[in-house]
Amino acid sequence: MLEGKAALVTGASRGIGKAIAIELAKQGANVVVNYAGSKDKAEAVVDEIKQLGRDAFAVQANVSNSDEVKDIIKQTVDHFGSLDILVNNAGITRDNLLMRMKEEEFDEVIDTNLKGVFNCLKGVTRQMMKQRSGKIVNVASIVGVTGNPGQANYVAAKSGVIGMTKSVAKELAARNVNVNAVAPGFIATDMTDELSDEAKQQMYDLIPLDRLGDPEDVAKVVRFLASDDANYMTGQTIHVDGGMVM
Amino acid sequence: MADVFDRVKNIIVERLDVDESKVTESASFKDDLEADSLDVVELVMELEDEFDMEISDEEAEKINTVGDAVNYINSIQ
Fold first, then answer.
1. What is the pLDDT of residues A94-150, one digit of tens each?
2. Which of A21, A72, A86, B72 is the most buried (most CB within 10 A)?
């Protein structure tokens, strides 16, 4: 499905990003595993991909830093000769009620989750325009559609990603570059483990399919959007949330 | 001078699919050569490759005519 394609997945050392990196590799892609801090975990993902018979390497970079982003993109193109798939997955949370949210908490989340996506989009545009092909998938969140108390910063960023997906999709459509987003719902990861039991139960009650999502549930939709099967889709945000938001 | 102009002209003719006679020093990419803004971005990318140079976003924004591009390239080389 993705035989020989070169993919860059940001924030791929764990959680949804890890599942995406492995899923793309299972379908034949070679993968650059970007990570911010978890070097050992990123190397473990690389090993797992190599065991699948694909090429992979890990690169440390903070996506909020445009120079570091330029560097990982250059490394990807230098190594693989192309960059066919970009998955913007890197994200952080700094949850707090608006009344208590510090300016730094707002800025940190916007810098990584929104500006980070901008940096990566901008960074790959040249390569993909030259190739006249490319698939970009942004990992947003269902709360970017619905809002969520305690996450004004995160929701602002994710909602921003959904809007940016549409703008960039329109800009790059004529160059045969597809830009879509997925909006995961309640997925079992380290990030959601931090939520209180009460908050989890509340969300659980809202999921028609009556279970938490797995990272693989999201990864499979990303793999579809990254493939030629999705050639006639661009600017879309696909909810992967067990039916929470319809 | 002429050499740079000819190389720039060739790229423009090929990329924008316009008649050679239209590509004069004073021709504006957007008004005379019917390029949209994305076409201009791509054109700048090709010029960077052709002349093995990097044109910053700030400089690229000032390139409106064929002459602007030629002069910029000459000023660097």
1. 999 999 999 999 999 999 999 999 999 999 998 999 899 999 999 999 999 999 999
2. A21
Catalytic residue list contains B36: yes
Give yes or no for A48 touching B (CB within 8 A). no
Looking at the domain that runs over A6-186+215-239, which CATH code has it been given? 3.40.50.720
Q: Rounded to the nearest 5°, which phi and psi values hold at B6?
A: -65, -40
The reply to whether residue B38 touches residue A174, judged by beta carbons under 8 angstroms, is yes
Task: Give the global pTM.
Answer: 0.90
DSSP A186: S
CA A173 from centroid of its chain's CA atoms: 20
Q: What is the ipTM of this complex?
A: 0.74
pLDDT digits (tens, 9 = 90+) for A10-54: 999 999 999 999 999 999 999 999 999 999 999 999 999 999 999
Question: Apex CA A190: angle with CA A184 and CA A191, to 5°?
Answer: 55
Contact map slice: B 56-75 vs A, CB within 8 A? none
What is the CATH number for B59? 1.10.1200.10
Domain that holds residue B64: 4-18+27-76
**How far apart are the C-alpha atoms of A234 and A137, rounded to whole Å?**
10
Chain B, residues 38-57, CB within 8 A of chain A, namely 38, 41-42, 45
